[in-house]
Amino acid sequence: MTTPTDATLEELLDRSRTLAGSGVRRILGIAGPPGAGKSYLAEELAAALGPDLAVVVPMDGFHLAQEVLETLGRAGRKGAADTFDGEGYVALLRRLRHQVAPRTTTDAALDGVVLAPRFHRDLEEPVGSAIAVRPDVPLVITEGNYLLRPQAPWIDARGLLDEVWFLAPPQDLRQERLVARHVSFGRSREAATEHALGSDEVNAREIAATAQLADLVLRLVESP
Predict the structure, then answer these.
(1) Which homologous superfamily does the CATH classification assign to the domain defined by 5-221?
(2) pLDDT single digits (tens) 125-134
(3) What is the pTM for the complete model shown?
(4) Domain ranges, ordered by start, for the chain
(5) Which of 15, 43, 48, 116 is deepest in the core (most CB within 10 A)?
């Protein structure tokens, strides 16, 4: 994988602020394997920029529902590329890319708004229409594992993103985070470790191979 560049949150905030100030809708992608810190970085950037400049739309909202995964026989591989609605995600990116100014409708509160799903980890299920994206917000930050996957339908996502940053923290730190996340959502330490070093690691190796397609491969570091 490409050697990552050290970057501070402040440096990345400056870069995202430039995107937000371009005068047109921009979409920033943050990719990386499970436990890389994608959600943390996306939320930190959006919080610093404020709701008038940025909104986070995670790819995780396109997880297939547990019932669908069980029907397809994929429940044991949850998190793999084929356990997401990739076509739905790409369709949403197209809507966000071409989102138009408000129109006159019977529901002024949703005039021109695009509604996106969110994945609730406490439920382990996606919930539709959970994120409202106003047409006047200049920067959409989307984060997820497969933003750079070069197979259909994911390959179409790359052309809809203005920049993609690939997070590549040290392997041991990433796995520690992943185990802690699984434990926090109810798994035993043993089960969490098995999952993190099993199916999660299989996915991580596949995702790492896509880093070369990113605009920036980075390791988030503290400010000096």
Answers:
(1) P-loop containing nucleotide triphosphate hydrolases (3.40.50.300)
(2) 999 999 999 9
(3) 0.92
(4) 5-221
(5) 116
